Amino acid sequence: MARSLQQAMPTEEVKQKHQNKALEIEGIVISSTIGYPDQLREILNQDNVIYLDSQTSIPIVNAYHTPATLGPDRLAAAIGAHAKCPDTNILVIDMGTAITYDYVSSDGTYLGGNIAPGIDMRFKALHDNTAKLPLVSKDGELSYIGSTTETAIRAGVILGVKYEIEGYIREFMSKSGNVSVFLTGGSALHFEDSIKRCIFADEFLVHEGLYAIYQYNKKHI
To answer: Which terminus of the chain has fewer Cβ atoms in its 10 Å neighbourhood, N or C?
Structure first.
């Protein structure tokens, strides 16, 4: 038994080979909404690391008036959508802590977008800013007309977000004609079936945008 176990254990040579293989990283792209600590930069002190910020070279034109204040996740999602549907107008709806609506024109120009409270934030705001309204979960009974305070809050928030999204889609399509709509973010799965005019639901859109940024910068790293 001891001999079989010993034979099954990897040798130091095999261990070293796997460790070296694990370290063979072609490139790294990092996106953070809170900045990049010096400790992180010290640990990843390599030439093949891209820290996404307003100075990073990107495959679309950023026409945002204050690029330094633009969340890198918003920009990455827009780039990811553009990579999937170049030469088309794009509306990206990212449903995270906040709900963001970002627009990329058919010529590959990021024109900006809007920021609204996310679903959990809306539930919390109703509870924190009133005397008696309870903190309600998004999961549970949902009807068009709430018959209890709990269902009234849930319907008000969930359906309110649904109608808001549908309104944005209608508005962008009325002003820009054909628009490819992308839905992403942690809460997107709750809405992809109910919002019929959403063409693409992609939970990895930010990651795909980061990969597109890496590919665009690959020749420089």
So the answer is: N
